[in-house]
Protein 1
Amino acid sequence: MDINNIIHGNCIEKLNDIDDNSVDLIYFDPPFFTQRKHTLTNKDNSKTFAFDDKYNSIEEYLSMIERVIEQSKRILKNTGSVFLHCDKTASHHIRLVLDRVLGRDNFQSEIIWTYKRWSNAKKGLLNAHQVIFFYSKTQDFKFNTLYTDYSATTNLDQILQDRERNANGKSVYKRDEYGNTVLGKEKRGVPLSDVWEIPYLNPKARERTGYPTQKPVVLLTQLINIATDEGDLVLDPFCGSGTTCVAAKYLQRKYIGIDISGDAVELAKMRLEEMIISESNLLNKGVNEYYEKTEKELALLQNINAFPVQRNSGIDGFLKEHFGGAPVPIKIQKEDETLEDAIKKLEKSSHGKNYIMKILIQTKETNVSRLFRLETDVTILKSLELQTKELANKNNKLRAAKVLQ
Amino acid sequence: MDINNIIHGNCIEKLNDIDDNSVDLIYFDPPFFTQRKHTLTNKDNSKTFAFDDKYNSIEEYLSMIERVIEQSKRILKNTGSVFLHCDKTASHHIRLVLDRVLGRDNFQSEIIWTYKRWSNAKKGLLNAHQVIFFYSKTQDFKFNTLYTDYSATTNLDQILQDRERNANGKSVYKRDEYGNTVLGKEKRGVPLSDVWEIPYLNPKARERTGYPTQKPVVLLTQLINIATDEGDLVLDPFCGSGTTCVAAKYLQRKYIGIDISGDAVELAKMRLEEMIISESNLLNKGVNEYYEKTEKELALLQNINAFPVQRNSGIDGFLKEHFGGAPVPIKIQKEDETLEDAIKKLEKSSHGKNYIMKILIQTKETNVSRLFRLETDVTILKSLELQTKELANKNNKLRAAKVLQ
DNA sequence: ACCGTCCCTGAATCATTGG
DNA sequence: TCCAATGATTCAGGGACGG
């Protein structure tokens, strides 16, 4: 069969053309049994893509899935793996099929892909994850451990220490004859876990094709990295817009994509030529880069029932309750800001918005002129810490005066 | 059946004693079908707790689960919900049982509890999540939406704006006649999603060495908060060390716990009786903070550079810096306290101590007489929240006056 | 009662613009 | 050339409503 190509047709038939024991990784992302038809239009409204996810019964759906899994088992190398992407709708049924066909012992992980999404009016919890079942063909599966950074709260000193078991079998830090802790071998970071927080494909991302249910390339590169090496063969029997193949090509793996829709095949082929992959700032920098509030500032905002705003030099938060029908912006004076600067920044950020009340929390003693204060409609409240400090100063003066008497 | 108690026995028998349609929330956390006996020893090695998770077959295990779910359905009110906590080992089998007994339409969410943990040497991905299936008894289930903070990357300025449809039917931001954006309605934050990142260890208790099977209290308080109101009845048929009951008691819900192990029942009873003391002896000291001080009070104390004090009705904390060589006690006025009461309590707790300065943080509007204030040497500072509230009132009056003119 | 269709929602984040 | 600020666009959505 053609390597590095997208094949048009029903995967159950087309998989017959693939040799036994020839594929290293199969990722598939079948319809989720939503019992809906999914339609989406590309950016310039020139093309509408659709696929049908309606079945007469769950049995009909599962029998389709089962046939694909059976074929997958046949064509997979002994070191190969299957990744089946689904959501909560039918995941339990699907996993039973996987257990039956591939064997319960070959179940490796239930990967949770989690993302933030715009909310809706649903009663209940907002859906924010999908599931990827990871099964190997045998116990001798290929696996590359990826490492992630230690979390900010980890005590690095501590994890660098070696451990041993004490008399009770508890794991304790190893100590030398002088009672000092012993440093262990070099650490490479935290092994990748089974919960993957990867941003949902953004409405504005250039990577977006207009094909419904398109997955981010980053999700696929991670899968491909853990289960294959360069030159290995990756297969996607429901390739849709071709994300899997794009990721495989990017990572210098061979690929085969199959899809029943001619539109999808055409789109996937085009994507493979263009290879547009959006850089995710969020993933590159990590979410912590975006958090710029100190614990103290967050505590202060919580205190006055405000939610925090990140990355805005003029506004640190908004009160949860409106005033006069408008939001109330809050700014907290920074350590290196004069009161005057702080007021100016808040005013600039509020310009053109019809805020009725704006609040600045003063955190430092100041000698701003009374005149200047009157020219602004920013209300200044003194932080409790400042009030405490001023109080202490005043009391000190009183005590000093007493001593003089 | 006894309300607010822990019952010793097999839950399948004991559930018979509970009336039909009487329970608001059932959380259960059965053995995960690990086919192992779990043994854990507490910190000072004085006591070993064990439970058996070995079954002859998955069918035997599932039939046990099914009987509990059937009973659950019977005793649940029509507005009630079931939360079943399990892990990937048998989750798919368990969900089939849930679908069968409670009905597929009553499936609400697959909640993912994710946490960071120590790495191990296992080939493959590090497990970092467990699953909680959320089913309601009917479509008319009780649900309180909780709100979380906006993502750090969210442009809050923008989403506060109102929107409308333009000529092409596209949704665009609304502007007034001068081209300024129009502010929309009040925002409450982002509805809680189905992925919950909650550390195994309470973040305020990093020093804690651990008690692995125990669930974090925050996990349980969150479940109880979304599905019940104060005074509602919470049941845990596999209550173990009693975390569910502790959380229920903390949130002023009624509770029933059942466990087959005498040791567990004893432990749970002790935790409930002396919630704070047992917590600190058995687990850690940091959890104290969680129980006695509300988050808001902790934030406020942090705000003025004070550390919290537990179990003293007159003093909530002390400033980290002394004044005049003496500590400075802080009290925060409680929701149900008059300013006068608060002052008296603080004075009583400070009696005989040579505090030079005592600070009361006023949190509610009051009409205490000026005279009374002068008789005390307690300094009263107004919380920022109160200042904001007073400011809003004042501005409202000004606006009202303007309208009259 | 059940389906399809229409209409509403709302926060996330990358691309673009601005300095 | 880089960083910061701004806003466009969405919908493995969800509910209401009418035939």
Protein 2
Amino acid sequence: MAREAAAAAMKGKKLHRGPWQEDEDELLNTFVSLLGSQRWDFIARVSGLKRSGKSCRLRWLNYLRPNIKHGHISAEEEQIILQLHKRWGNKWARIAERLPGRTDNDIKNYWRTYLRRKVQVQKKGDQHEFLFEKGGNAAPQCSNEGGNHKSFVDVLETENISSDAAGTSDFGLTNSPYETRISDWISEFSGEEGEIKYHHEYWSCLESCCHYSDWISEDSDIWETCSDSLWNMD
DNA sequence: AAGCGCCTCAACCGCATGGGA
DNA sequence: TTCCCATGCGGTTGAGGCGCT
């Protein structure tokens, strides 16, 4: 960036910084539709925007791109973020791939907010225990102390839901925007180091979690119970 | 009404990565 | 193989909004 700024300065141009104006957005939109969402330096140059290519790319990806979702993260999305963050850590871009319309920036920002909230809750002595890895990324680890965790099926049975129902294809996210994505992910995952069994079980469980997100309260330990057994799966 | 603190989110920064010469 | 450049990614910052006192 310093190099870009320096290069612009050498050419006698000063790069715009700060919030984008409406006319800048329109200009960027126009040139991206003409030239595609590649070659950002070129787009920045030919559009006349006094912005770096990087800045143009960011603006496009995080705001102007079609099908971007603005607004609140749903409970369902939140749980997916939690699950994926637990598995992958701060791989925001990778997590964002699993949430159509959400950007890595959205998720990153959301996680910071979420994290802060959880830490505050923890300080207040909430039973929701999140242990943070020392020196590593900030992925929360669900406490498993006491060895008292039930399997997800056990939990379902406790809640009077048959494991059959939880395991059938009918159980999936029929009303969820993630319905098709999940099957895509499973096939995608199948190419990753023979992890297909793991992911089938993982997504089957995750689908169940998502499907029941209406009745599983935010504070329920079902999510953690479910994920604990999954993350420990070999 | 004013001041303050907290929260959210857009944008920036710097490093990593990949591809081409 | 090495270098250079564009792009991608994750961490961080700061402006503005909002609620509380």
